[in-house]
Amino acid sequence: VDDAPVVTRAIADRALQLLDVDPVGLDVMDRKYLSLIVGSFGGGPVGIETIAAALSEPRDAIEDIIEPYLIQKGFVQRTPRGRVLTPHAFRHMGLPVHIGLPEAGQRVAEPA
């Protein structure tokens, strides 16, 4: 990067910044995936086909490229009902942690 003979931490940090990779290693697509699940589905569960359609990405690309790192880092869990964000994901996004979210498609009771 910048014709430097040695790659220092500062140079590596600058390269990651240029690639829009955050301090924990999430890139634009990772953040888009997390934002979709929290913003449109309240944190999940949500099925992979729904995620693929909403992101306009092939299912295989999501399962093979995006999800492995998010699962490894503890941001997403695969469940029989669909993908669910973990409390770690909510904290990373600067959002309050939602425990016991309603199931997808289930209405949340309005305050009286």
* Helix/strand/pairing category: mainly alpha
**Major β-sheet profile:** 2 strands, antiparallel
Low-confidence stretches: 101-112
Read across the widest sheet, the strand sequence of neighbours is 1-2
Question: Helical amount among residues, as a percent range?
Answer: 40-55%
- Fill in the CATH topology of the domain at 24-92: Arc Repressor Mutant, subunit A
Radius of gyration: 17 Å
CATH class call of the domain at 24-92: Mainly Alpha
Alpha carbon gap, first and last residue: 59 Å
Number of helices: 5
Strand content: 5-15%
Please, what is the average pLDDT? 81
InterPro entries: DNA_helicase_Holl-junc_RuvB (IPR004605), RuvB_wg_C (IPR008823), WH-like_DNA-bd_sf (IPR036388), WH_DNA-bd_sf (IPR036390)
Organism: Methylobacterium soli
GO biological process, one term: DNA repair
Domain RuvB winged helix C-terminal: 25-93
What does this structure look like?
The protein has 112 residues and is mainly alpha-helical. The protein has a domain at 24-92: Orthogonal Bundle (Arc Repressor Mutant, subunit A), CATH 1.10.10.10. Helix content is 46%, strand content 7%. The chain has a two-stranded antiparallel sheet with strand order 1-2. β1 (76-79) and β2 (82-85) form a beta hairpin.
The gist of it:
This protein is mainly alpha-helical and 112 residues long. The chain has five helices and two strands; from the N terminus they run H-H-H-H-E-E-H. The protein is elongated, with a radius of gyration of 17 Å.
List the helices and strands and how they pair.
Layout lengths: L8 H10 L9 H14 L6 H8 L3 H14 L3 E4 L2 E4 L1 H6 L20
Antiparallel strand pairs: 1-2
Protein name: RuvB winged helix C-terminal domain-containing protein
Organism: Methylobacterium soli
InterPro entries: DNA_helicase_Holl-junc_RuvB, RuvB_wg_C, WH-like_DNA-bd_sf, WH_DNA-bd_sf
